Inverse folding.
């Protein structure tokens, strides 16, 4: 296949060139390549080609919660959102805390055959925080990392052990940072809007103290650690300072933390309920600054699809989470690139290269010999988010009706078109 | 009233609050005369849907509706049944299907009445939702104040007690500010949530400062069931350092009213002397409650003027 006349986001530059794809790899990057006989030509004039987007934090709900999402619907949403690789969290039923479930997820992903599905195993058995899950076996079955997802391992010694043991297998702990004794059943950020709505607040410190703990463990053990979905100004600062003194810490945030602040909870719209909660405007601005200065390495969705019944209830009872795969790229492009915070190369780093590096998985760059995982978008097309058009089973988005720039036109995985926009 | 529902005083315009108080005053005069035979709500039905225990508020709404000729049905659901069983949305749809006109809801979770109001055709009255609002309580408090002082504007109201968990404090703050009163608050820091100052309250650093020059001193119930997290060490210590007593009342204006939404923990929020004293309006608040709820039901259910 020959991709013609596209603006291509290379490692450090952006230029208009052609890409030849053969045997699933990027074979040649050069201007004015001549189509070979019988070669498919994809004219991408006016479009931009990114290295295939990688979302290192999603929930696919299968096995166990197929009413919310399954691997097939999640993968359809992923390729529609431009993602070529997704890493799914272990909070399924049964929990992905053993090689059987990890292997099931991996194989089901291959069967679906859209994007690459990379399972993440649990840190402890049953996510109970008591005994280590069989980390070696899960790695062998295809797990790319371990995470307790949705909670912290409260026992700090056990967490230290997990980091050390996982490092023997070359994988990292991805840390959801939350001190449950501080969050204490809260549902929104503690502040003006929790008081205004009468909804129970969660102090920023609930997140910060665990970020600090996990940084301390990584520093003390000289091991890497990855902090999930950073939402607070103080959390960004903790990571910035740790990086400055050489701690091997990486971190991610999500589009909702740079797109929204907690004023949107005033409507009691349960689509705004997410964990960690949407924070105040100063936190939102700090997250953007963290992305700009490199403190935050990756943009992930924390795609958390839910059935309507899980959301059409009292705010306290509603499930936490946002269905994010189909809006992530456009939110990041519109709010970060068009506003001048990030360039296209930096966006590609946050959404492709850095996640690959953090997890030591293939992909993340457009270069000769690399897998032809490519995301092709029209950056000038403005479109309106319509949750009813989501292919994810989860229609739970606070962005319904938003007008965004950046429309995914094609998603290619190993050189095959897995998504093509239907007009 | 313009809206279908009464969900809180945050959204209610000052003129509608004023209208409710004016009608409430008329209702109170009727009740004092023993006139309990209005027919305003004849042919209408009211369901009280209470997911939290309440004697005072539920009875007050029930009598208010009955004094005006409505049919009343009471539903009590224990809070635990919120978590299982039928969803609030389905319960609301069921009541709508029965052609019911008004739902008075109390619920342990903020925003539940808002969800119900979006779901049903019936008028929804918030009778207290979690830590959010309790509009009819604030209206009855304001009715009592207005009757005593002739107006709300310019009054100084001190609120002491469990402000963090209090929907009463917030509804009073919103309503009183809209009508031009000043509101000062004091409580242990563990019971003062962030942001009240931005909503117009003066957050004080001592109870004396809060009560200084006050026309009204309002104690709020210490909700014992909500104090498990160690917000203060004991009721005795609360009463000693944060409660209102005769000594404290010297800082208030002479003859300042003592109010409390009830039920009172005697000797904790207020000393017995204050509860039973001459300027206590705690019992009068109860009468105001029935009156103001009659006004609420009347104005919510009247034919909406087409603009």
């Amino acid at each position: 296949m020959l991709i013609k006349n596209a603006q291509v986001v290379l490692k450090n530059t952006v230029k208009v060139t052609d890409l030849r794809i053969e045997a699933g790899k990027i074979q040649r990057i050069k201007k004015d390549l001549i189509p070979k006989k019988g070669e498919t030509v994809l004219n991408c004039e006016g479009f931009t080609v990114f290295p295939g987007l990688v979302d290192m934090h999603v929930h696919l709900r299968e096995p166990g919660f197929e009413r919310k999402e399954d691997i097939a619907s999640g993968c359809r949403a992923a390729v529609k959102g431009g993602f070529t690789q997704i890493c799914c969290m272990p909070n399924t039923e049964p929990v992905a805390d053993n090689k059987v479930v990890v292997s099931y997820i991996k194989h089901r992903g291959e069967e679906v055959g859209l994007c690459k599905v990379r399972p993440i195993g649990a840190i402890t058995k049953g996510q109970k925080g008591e005994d280590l899950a069989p980390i070696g076996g899960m790695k062998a079955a295809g797990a790319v990392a371990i995470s307790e997802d949705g909670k912290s391992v409260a026992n700090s010694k056990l967490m230290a052990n997990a980091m050390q043991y996982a490092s023997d297998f070359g994988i990292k702990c991805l840390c959801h940072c939350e001190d449950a004794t501080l969050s204490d059943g809260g549902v929104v950020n503690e502040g003006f809007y929790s008081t205004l709505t009468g909804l129970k607040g969660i102090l920023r410190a609930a997140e910060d103290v665990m970020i600090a703990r996990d940084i301390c463990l990584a520093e003390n053990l000289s091991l890497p650690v990855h902090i999930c979905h950073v939402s607070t100004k103080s959390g960004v600062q903790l990571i910035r300072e740790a990086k400055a003194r050489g701690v091997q810490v990486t971190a991610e945030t999500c589009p909702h933390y740079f797109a929204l602040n907690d004023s949107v909870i005033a409507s009691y719209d349960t689509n705004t309920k997410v964990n960690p909660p949407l924070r105040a405007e100063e936190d939102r601005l700090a997250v953007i600054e963290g992305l700009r200065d490199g403190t935050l390495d990756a943009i992930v969705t924390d795609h958390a699809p839910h059935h309507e019944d899980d959301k059409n209830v009292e705010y306290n009872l509603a499930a936490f989470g946002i269905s994010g795969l189909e809006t992530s790229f456009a939110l990041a492009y519109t709010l970060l690139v068009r506003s001048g915070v990030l360039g296209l190369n930096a966006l590609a780093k946050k959404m492709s290269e850095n996640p690959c590096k953090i997890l030591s998985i293939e992909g993340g760059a457009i270069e000769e010999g690399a897998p032809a995982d490519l995301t092709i978008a029209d950056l000038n097309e403005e479109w309106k988010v319509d949750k009813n058009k989501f292919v994810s089973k989860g229609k739970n988005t606070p962005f319904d009706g938003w007008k965004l720039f950046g429309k995914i036109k094609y998603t290619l995985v190993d050189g095959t078109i897995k998504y093509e926009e239907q007009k | 009233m313009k809206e279908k529902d009464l969900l809180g005083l945050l959204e209610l315009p000052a003129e509608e609050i004023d209208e409710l108080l004016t009608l409430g005053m008329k209702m109170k005069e009727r009740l004092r005369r023993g006139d309990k035979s209005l027919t305003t709500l004849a042919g209408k039905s009211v369901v009280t849907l209470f997911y939290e225990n309440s004697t005072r508020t539920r009875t007050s709404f029930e009598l208010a509706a009955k004094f005006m000729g409505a049919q009343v049905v009471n539903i009590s659901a224990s809070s635990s049944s919120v978590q299982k069983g039928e969803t609030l949305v389905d319960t609301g749809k069921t009541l709508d299907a029965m052609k019911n006109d008004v739902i008075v809801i109390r619920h342990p979770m903020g925003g539940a009445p808002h969800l119900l109001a979006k779901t049903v055709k019936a008028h929804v009255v918030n009778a207290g939702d979690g830590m959010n609002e309790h509009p009819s309580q604030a209206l009855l408090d304001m009715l009592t104040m207005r009757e005593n002082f002739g107006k709300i504007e310019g009054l100084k109201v001190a609120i002491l007690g469990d402000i963090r968990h209090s929907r009463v404090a917030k509804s009073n703050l919103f309503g009183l500010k809209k009508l031009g009163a000043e509101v000062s608050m004091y409580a242990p820091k563990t019971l003062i949530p962030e942001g009240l100052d931005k909503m117009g309250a003066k957050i004080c650093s001592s109870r004396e400062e809060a009560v200084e020059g006050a026309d009204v001193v309002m104690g709020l119930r210490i909700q014992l069931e909500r104090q498990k997290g160690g917000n203060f060490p004991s009721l005795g210590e609360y009463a000693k350092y944060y409660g209102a007593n005769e000594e404290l009342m010297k800082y208030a204006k002479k003859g300042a009213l003592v109010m409390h939404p009830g039920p009172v923990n005697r000797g904790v929020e207020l000393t017995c002397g204050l509860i039973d004293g001459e300027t206590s309006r705690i019992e009068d608040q109860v009468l105001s409650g029935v009156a103001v709820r009659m006004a609420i039901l009347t104005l919510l259910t009247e034919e909406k003027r087409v603009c």
